[in-house]
Every structure is written in structure tokens, then in C-alpha cells.
Amino acid sequence: MNLVQHPELLDRLAAAYALGTLRAGARRRFEQMARAHPQVRSAAMLWQGRWSALSELQSPVQPDAAVWTRIQNLVDADQAGIALERQRAAANARSPKALAWWRSLALTGAVATVAAVAVGLYAQQSLQRNTGQQLAALQTELQKTQTALQAAPQLQYVAVLADGKAQASMLVTFDARHGRLELQRVGGYQEAADRSLQLWALPTQGAPQSLGVMGEGRLEQLQAQLAQVQAVPALAVSLEPKGGVPSETGPTGPVLFSGALIKRDL
User: Fold this and answer.
1) First-residue to last-residue Cα distance in the chain
2) Same domain flag for 162 and 255
3) What is the largest CA-CA distance in the chain?
4) 11-24 as b/e, with b when 16 or more CB fall inside 10 Å?
5) Other C-beta atoms lying within 10 Å of the C-beta of residue 34
6) What 3-state class would DSSP assign to 203?
7) How far apart are CA 229 and CA 237, in angstroms?
8) pLDDT tens-place values along the chain, 266 residues long
9) 146 and 160: one domain?
10) Are residues 116 and 74 in the same domain?
């Protein structure tokens, strides 16, 4: 099966691969397809970024101390009752005269059991109050998470730009919600201090159009409009003099990386 022709299946497999639930032969086959198809590689990279971001949104929750207090009280009450029954049976076997004394002792044990249950009920009420506070805190965290997801990028286009040896060198995504291109270096190339990398849109007809000049960081953002990328089948990166060249001149230096621009079904 060609995963590139089945985007929904590709998205699910990429998510499972990035999460680590894709095992054994299925994982090896996915890695083989990723080496052969840039669309598969880009889907895996996107899900790896999503999982690493989501792990930072959830904070751990510790059980309330009242839970352990209630459990310990109930265990102590059960053990006291068992010990009392054993002592009563042993005393009855030794002397009938001790029956009254054991009855009073049983009454004392019953009072202790009632006290333990009362403490347990108090702990339960405290637990309920604390549970309400925890639920309120969780609702606050959920609202924060929803806000964060609404502010998350809407990645509508993606491209994996490779060098002349078909090695992935740059991941490019277009965030339609915020109108920007994000470029992430995934290879080891670094331009000289007097040179700049410039991103170009390669339309089906006409000359290349500049989308911006990159800085020297591993992750760069360039402002762009949807109209600049929606009809573009491919992107390229050229090596230019420091600061880049005007768009109308086109690339003047060697083209280092190129690749297809793929539209994602959101």
C-alpha cells in the first residue's frame, strides 16, 4: 500500500510511530517508507513535535493525605476486631469467670472501632472537600490546555527539503492561523558568516519568488500569506550574499535544498 495516497492512515501511523506504540515489523516498514518518501518523514516529524509539546501541559497530581489516613484507620479497626475475637475465644476456653471482664473489654473495643470509623468519616469529608478543590484545579488546567490548543499553529502546508544526496536538511511548515513559515534545520549545514540562506517558492509557471531570508538559528520564522504558497508545488533554498537578493533577480547562488510542498488535510 502507498501511504502517500492514504493521508488519514499515514497520519495515524505517524502518530503511533512518534508515540512509540508502533512495534516490531510495522515500525521497521514505516522507517523504510520514511526514507523513501518525504511526506512520510514530514508526518513523523510533525507528530514528534506534537507529542513533545503535549507532555509539558499536564502536571502530576498527588493523592490527598486524607486518603491514606482513612485507609490506615480502617485497617487498624479490622485488625483490632480480629485480635479481640481471638483473645475472647482464648479466655472463654480458660475460665468462665473472665467472661464479664471480656465483655467489658469487647465494649471498649467497640467504642474504639466506632471512634476509628468516626475518624474515617471525618477524613472522608475532608477528602471530598479536597477532591472538589482538585476538580476545580483540573478544570482550570483544562481551560488552559484548550486555550493553548486554540493558539497552536494550524499547519496547512509542509515540505522536507533535501540536499543533492537526498538527505533531509530542512523542515518547512506553513502556519495558516498565524500567517508564517517556520523553517527548522535538521541537517548539519551551516553557511559562512558572509552568506545567507534564502527561501524561494517555485511556481508551476514563471520565475521563482522569494519568501524571505533566513537567519543563522536552527529555527526561523518568516511572515507569509496563504496566496504565496497555496499554488506552489515546490520550495528551494539557495546560498546568497549576506542579507539575500531581491525577489525579481531570482536565485544568484547555488540551490542547496529543494522539495515538494504538500498540503495537509486539516
Assistant:
1) 22
2) yes
3) 114
4) bebbbbbbeeebee
5) 21
6) coil
7) 15
8) 676 777 788 888 888 888 888 778 888 888 888 888 888 888 888 888 777 655 555 555 666 777 778 788 878 887 887 888 887 777 666 655 555 555 665 566 655 665 555 656 665 666 566 666 665 665 666 566 555 545 555 677 889 999 988 888 899 999 888 889 999 998 888 999 999 999 999 999 889 999 999 998 889 999 999 888 888 999 999 999 999 999 998 999 999 999 999 887 65
9) no
10) yes
The whole domain housing 40 covers 3-54
Q: Specify whether 101 is located in the same domain as 168.
A: no
| Residue 38 sits in the same domain as residue 82 | no
Domain count within the chain: 3
Indicate the residue type of 35: R
Q: Which residues, at least 6 apart from 252, have a Cβ–Cβ distance to it below 8 Å?
A: 238, 240, 241, 245
Q: Which three cell numbers stand for residue 221?
A: 520564522
Question: Residue 59 domain-assigned?
Answer: no
Residue 249 near residue 219 (C-beta atoms within 8 A): no
**pTM passes above 0.85:** no
The CATH number of whichever domain residue 174 belongs to comes to 2.60.40
What is the four-CA torsion angle of 40, 44, 49, 53, rounded to 10 degrees? Answer: 130
